[in-house]
Amino acid sequence: MSSILISAEPAEALNRRIREKIDPALFLTCNYAPTAVPSLHWDARFYLAVQNLYKFAVDSTCVTPALYHFTPEAERWRFSRFRELVDTIKMLRAVLDHNNSQANGFFEQHQLEEYRTWQQRELGKIQAETDQDFERLYRALEQIGEKLITQLTLFVDLVAEAADKAPL
């Protein structure tokens, strides 16, 4: 299967799964359409991947932000990292797409610090400098995308198996 970073196929597969297993009228994502721009360099691929992950995890669904609340209580432990993944995507987009001046307030400073920490964890340094650095960051985004798809697939399967879907 293609990566959610560059293809709508994983989102469409989730929608098929929810229609087949739960109800033909349901969908998980609505019209997810990743931006496809031919990018030769990893820095451009990285920035585009952040945009597409945000489109998938936030813009194209109302379920993902509230997934934890829709999950049967006994199964919530399985999704403990899900919210962290979505929060990471939101942070990346906020830092890369919004005005985050060093002179701004606490909220922006906190997000900038989170971004530096994320890069430190992925690269071993706080600033991507080379094409290889951006490739590593892109690969980290691919892993986030794969984890999201895995978690959403598990969510659909758990809801499909739930005896009482009314409280979900």
UniProtKB/TrEMBL annotation:
This protein's name: Uncharacterized protein
Taxonomy, superkingdom: Bacteria
